[in-house]
Amino acid sequence: MSNSILVVGGGFSGLTAALEAAELGYEVYIVEKSPFLGGRVAQLNKYFPKLCPPSCGLEIQFQRIKKNPNVKFLTMATVDSVEGEAGDFTVKVSIAPRCTAPSSADLGELASSLESEVADEFNLGLATRKPLYMDTPFAFPNRYVLEPKKLSSADAIKVGASDACDLNEAPKEIELSVGSIILATGWKPYDVTNLTNLGAGQITNCISNMQMERLASPNGPTDGAITRPSDGKSPEKIAFVQCAGSRDQNHLGFCSYICCMASLKQALYVREQYPDADVTIYYIDMRTPGRYDKFMRKAVADEKLHLVKGKVAGVEEDAATGDVIVEVEDAVKGHKAKIRHDMVVLATGMQPSLAGEANPFGVTLDDEGFVVGGEAKGIFSAGCAQKPLDVMRTAQSGTSAALKAIQTVRGR
């Protein structure tokens, strides 16, 4: 039997769950598949309810982890198998090689000297990065990652000469004994290339809402300047298309809950940078639950921000100018129109990370990939692994999962 707790996922719900349990004296393991902790929140420019930058919440969590010996974390790690029962699980974990020294060596100069460039996942394809990188803001752990297979021959020679890099580091497998498991596996942006009628993946100036967060972020690819990807032009007329892939039987059958609020927030990003810009949000239903209704009323009081209730049928590109033409049916006025914009942002939905992925935990997933049940087995879900949530409710669900996990190990 074990009193330890495994948390799968190092985003906001996972960090909250891990710290709540650890600060009550329980040993906690965090297994995170990416090189750094922080999850999707780290990619945002600002988050609700206070419109704080990610550092506002995450750096506090990272400091708590550093000060608490009960928390142990594994990055670039995935769960391969889970065997046993509540109180006595054996979990096999694979850890991919980081290929850099365990110290916090500053490899910035070496990284910048490399000629190789690869797509930057953190910036959602809006930029490139080096195959030796630590491009996550306030990265934790503060340690570079090296991808040897993506180095040119010349770069491999250069990196191989560094004592802080190991081109031949091998993957590892470890085994953990834990009494309960918390699935805080989070969410992934719905694949916009599936939305061909909306120009996603084809029209350069038609981007996703998460790409918009990166454009607006001071540590993003444009240093916070919201500009058109095609030519760097400042947009004078920008549109947001709601329910891009959500509430659609051909894509995501559910409402992603936060998309309306995200677009209103991003509309304010635009208006703050460009006081003369016109912003239009095309929506089916505007969902602003609870306290967020006040935020919506404040946003729509802006005479340059327009809400149009209508379904967008298609998006086209003017190849000569790079402008984006939106075909929309105005449900209130009862007519169809094609409207030109400098740029379009698709409010793509939140798909659970487990959707379409391996499920070594043995829990039941619904048709969309959300976790349902599992509590009888001593496995609990938190955050967007169970349903779409904002950051505040994600943290609350992490606390709830931690309490349930503690009750499981305490009762054994």
Automatic annotation (TrEMBL):
Pfam family membership, one: FAD_oxidored
Signal listed as a keyword: no
One annotated GO molecular function: oxidoreductase activity
Keywords recorded for this protein, A-Z: 4Fe-4S, Iron, Iron-sulfur, Metal-binding, Oxidoreductase
Name recorded for this polypeptide: Putative adenylylsulfate reductase-associated electron transfer protein QmoA
Organism listed in the record: Halodesulfovibrio marinisediminis DSM 17456
Lineage of source species: Bacteria, Pseudomonadati, Thermodesulfobacteriota, Desulfovibrionia, Desulfovibrionales
